[in-house]
Design brief:
single chain, 20 strands
């Protein structure tokens, strides 16, 4: 009887295969440990960065299983006994697949354990981060290897050696980081986007950050599981006799559903937050629509904001604003251009006409405009607003701001806010710890009198020094800056600012988040109720302190 024991003998029968596997695995382990050591010695990256930069090792791992599976199956089919073996005893067609899948599981456990053990030398390594590592290995190593084992079994059935080798090389290229590099480098040509579909490793799609140090997002699980389902179809067609057509139809339906989910406009919001932030769109709108080149005041004041925010895979919000002067012919607002307005109404619920150009919204007055409600949805770039993590400063127009305020320039983003304070009443569906400049009066409900609302959520923690409360990443992207020595230097700098400019940070939240989506020049916001320093690098921060306050004096 052909059992699993015989299957193991079969897949390890060639001593050169065993030697080759040993060499590849030794190289993968060496490169993985070396990567961790380099990042640790430089102090220039956290555990999450190690995961994100393991792409080459992950590719070698899945390519190893693909070559192994393809070679085994192809050698069976080119053997003179293949007709007798596979023609009369179909059950043995998949026994060697079971054996390889088991080997894949064992090796994944070993490699994950080694990575966690070496990463344990980081001070911020804990059980939670060990969970991130396990998830990433399952997503970017184990499951892609499962897919490649199944795909290799199907490819190996091609008896023509030349055709077999050609398809083998094409597949190895399409799933490689090199193919995705082409896509990321030349995104303007549609045909060159095709390789991104075959990015089965998926840990190089989006880099990790300090607020959410993993790339194991839902759409990635759906994608690779769909690929595995598709790879099972040829095996079912060859091996199964009963209910074969029904099983194939079910598998096709599952694969189709997974890809529909994957290609939804809002399924890959984490990637779009970095890919959507092309300022070319913004400048094109500015130039071709003769939009304002400097700030324009609104001519009215918003006394109250009532905002309902739904953080899903993208932000969805309804913002009711009470207007102090309801006699304007037009109401001008600033709302970031990636947030799409889909309804505007007045105090009686009547719909209002509006025009939208880039970050600017012009609403035509009609009826009772003592309050105006704007409903909008979308993703935000540079910052974050989804059901995983949130980073929304008060001087970033993720909510309607009175007047036309310029948001982008060559090195800056945000810095658009009201020139007055208002009462804010914000309801949201978020749970867990959220840091805000507003007071949480009940779960998910925030109130306060401020220039604008600020919300931050992620893997964060607080450190208090001399009555200054710092909000820091639990797993900093650049851990060499997040030391008590540097935080003490920042405290001294803030005290110097108080002595020189009269601005005090005591009793306020001070955000020092190395959020990688923010370009240089953004942040360093000194508000009435919180401070946003962006970086904990004392050299950069002290230089930016002076720039901010000198510009304010001018």
């Amino acid at each position: 009887m052909f059992n699993l024991k015989n299957a193991f003998k079969q897949i390890f029968k060639d001593k050169f295969i065993v030697i080759g596997l040993g060499i590849v695995l030794a190289y993968i382990i060496f490169k993985q440990v070396d990567l961790i050591k380099i990042i640790k010695d430089d102090g220039d990256g956290n555990c999450g960065r190690t995961i994100a930069q393991s792409t080459k090792q992950a590719y070698l791992y899945v390519a190893m299983f693909f070559l192994w599976s393809s070679y085994n199956t192809h050698s069976f089919y080119t053997n003179k006994m293949s007709e007798m073996i596979f023609g009369f005893r179909k059950n043995i067609n998949i026994m060697h697949i079971y054996a390889m899948l088991l080997v894949n599981l064992i090796l994944t456990v070993i490699l994950t354990t080694i990575t966690i053990f070496v990463l344990g030398k980081f001070d911020n390594m804990d059980r939670m981060f060990a969970g991130f590592v396990i998830l990433q290995f399952l997503l970017s190593w184990f499951l892609p290897a499962v897919f490649m084992i199944l795909l290799g079994n199907s490819l190996g059935r091609i008896k023509n050696g030349t055709l077999f080798l050609f398809i083998l090389l094409v597949i190895l290229y399409l799933v490689s980081p090199a193919a995705l590099w082409v896509y990321n480098t030349i995104q303007g040509i549609i045909l060159l986007r095709i390789p991104a579909f075959f990015d089965i490793i998926q840990n190089n799609t989006y880099d990790t950050g300090s607020m959410y140090p993993t790339t194991a997002y839902a759409y990635k699980w759906i994608k690779i599981l769909g690929f595995i389902v598709a790879a099972m179809i040829p095996i079912v067609a060859k091996v199964f006799n009963k209910n074969k057509k029904v099983i194939i139809v079910i598998l096709l339906m599952l694969f189709t559903s997974s890809q529909i989910y994957y290609f939804q406009p809002d399924s890959k919001t984490f990637d779009y937050e970095t890919l959507m932030k092309e300022n070319i769109y913004y400048y094109y709108e500015m130039e071709n629509n003769n939009l304002p080149s400097e700030n324009e005041e609104a001519g009215f004041i918003i006394t109250d904001y009532n905002i309902d925010i739904d953080f899903g895979r993208r932000l969805k919000a309804s913002c009711e604003m009470k207007i102090s002067d309801a006699n304007c012919e037009n109401y001008k607002f600033t709302l970031y251009h990636t947030l799409k307005v889909y309804e505007v109404t007045n105090a009686t619920g009547a719909k209002l006409e509006y025009e939208r150009f880039a970050d600017f919204l012009n609403i035509t007055s009609k009826g009772d405009c003592s309050s105006i409600t704007i409903k909008y949805k979308g993703t935000v770039d540079h910052y974050a607003a989804n059901n995983t993590y949130v980073y929304l400063p008060e001087d970033y127009p993720y909510y309607p701001i009175a007047g036309y305020k310029l948001v982008n320039n060559d090195i800056n983003l945000g810095k658009a806010s009201n020139s007055f304070k208002a009462n804010f009443f914000v309801n949201m569906n978020e749970s867990g710890k959220i840091y805000s400049n507003l007071k949480e009066t009940s779960p998910g409900h925030y109130e306060g009198y401020a220039t604008g609302p600020m919300f931050v959520k992620g893997y964060l923690e607080t450190v208090t020094i001399e009555n200054i409360t710092y909000v820091c990443p639990k797993y900093p992207y650049y851990p060499k800056y997040y030391t008590m020595e540097n935080l003490n230097k920042l405290t001294k700098s803030l005290k110097d600012i108080e002595n020189k400019y009269g601005y005090s940070s005591e009793g306020k939240l001070v955000l020092v988040l190395d959020y990688c989506g923010i370009p240089y020049g953004t942040g360093y916001h000194f508000g009435d109720d919180y401070v946003d320093l962006v970086y904990a690098n004392p050299l950069i921060t002290m230089r930016r302190f002076e720039e901010v306050f000198e510009n304010a004096q001018d």
